[in-house]
Design goal:
The protein has 136 residues and is mostly helical. Helix content is 68%, strand content 0%. The chain has one domain. The longest helix is centred in the N-terminal third of the chain and has 26 residues.
């Protein structure tokens, strides 16, 4: 049974935590790795270097959307390929546990699952601009 009195607040906590994590990851790419370094890393994976910049911008934008609750469901759906791509290109060969050398797929896998859960649950409390509504 779902407690409808508190469920929206739980969704808000999930949404805000993921949003701040996306902003943190984008900030890491911008301020530590630098945009050029991020492009170089993506190129080393055999991906177009510009995709690194696209991911960085998407992480900032989706992070802000999640924190503020602006089309949060849509932001969650849009960011799923980011996490699935990180698993497929970087982490899958490093095993499951994230503390393995190079980082396993445990953390990005859990994060992707959380995005899917948020997309199914909805925007939660204190959302500034609600996404579409789904009826079962």
């Amino acid at each position: 049974m779902i407690d409808t009195r508190t469920a929206g607040y739980g969704i808000f906590l999930l949404r805000a935590a993921m949003g701040f994590l996306f902003i943190a990851h984008a900030s890491l790419k911008l301020f530590v790795f630098t945009p050029a370094g991020t492009e170089h890393f993506f190129a080393s994976l055999g991906l177009p270097p510009v995709l690194g910049l696209v991911v960085m911008i998407a992480e900032f934008a989706a992070g802000a959307a999640l924190v503020l609750g602006v089309y949060a469901r849509i932001a969650a759906i849009i960011m799923l390929p980011d996490l699935l791509g990180a698993i497929a290109t970087v982490h899958i060969h490093n095993g499951f546990f994230f503390n393995n050398a190079g980082g396993g797929w445990e953390y990005p896998g859990f994060w992707a699952l959380c995005l899917a859960v948020l997309a199914l649950l909805g925007d939660g409390a204190w959302a500034l601009k609600r996404s579409f509504s789904v009826t079962a």
